[in-house]
Each structure stands twice: as structure tokens, then as C-alpha cells.
Amino acid sequence: MFDDFSSSFIIQHYNYWMVIVLMMVGLYIVVSRGNLVKKIVGLNLFQTAVFMLYISVGKIIGGTAPILTGNPDEVYSNPLPHVLILTAIVVGVATTALGLALIVRINERYGTIEEDEIADIEQEIDRQESA
Fold this sequence. Notes:
Layout: H1 2-12, H2 14-32, H3 36-58, H4 80-110, H5 115-130
Helix pairs in contact: 2-3, 3-4
């Protein structure tokens, strides 16, 4: 009895499970990788998972577009989450473009996009300035 409930619960909410997996993969990429481009990819993956979460929450099964037809029993989906996500996608693209532009500048200055190498170069510069 419990197994039927748990498996049906998991199957019915598969989109939320996929969102959780995508969020964790994106967070893992951001935390574990030293390459700045890979960090941007991880942030984009995490951001996409958040978009999917909000769209999933905003969808009502059997709901239609909120166009008033005079039927009081009509079920409507809320369009606000979809509109907000559309705006967030535009902001996400702009943020990604800015991040990549900064990475290009960092690469021009330090010759690398690896975090640990940049930190080593900065420490060497600080040592030379203090000496």
C-alpha cells in the first residue's frame, strides 16, 4: 500500500523532481569548478531550473487562459508566473552576456580563466608591490 502511494506520488510530481535535480547539478557545477565559463554554465542551469519551477507552479491542470466567457465554473490558469519568467529570461540573458564579457576581460588581463591561477597571479602581484 505504501509503495503504491510513494511511486504514484513520485510519478505525479516528476517535474518537481527534475527541477530539484537540475538545481543540484547547477549548484554543484558552480561550487566545484574553477573555470569561470563553467561557473556561468552552472548558473544558467540553476536559473533554468528555477524558471521551470515557477512555470510548473503556475500551471493548473484543466485551466484555460483567463478570458472571461461568462461561465462561472470555468477554471483559469494564472498568467502572472509566465509573464514574470519571461522577464526573468531576458534578465538572465543579459546577466550571462555581462558575465561572459567580464570573463573575456579577465582572460585578457590574466591570461587564464581558472580561479586558482588568477588567485596565484594576484598573490604574486601583491608580493611584488609590497617588496
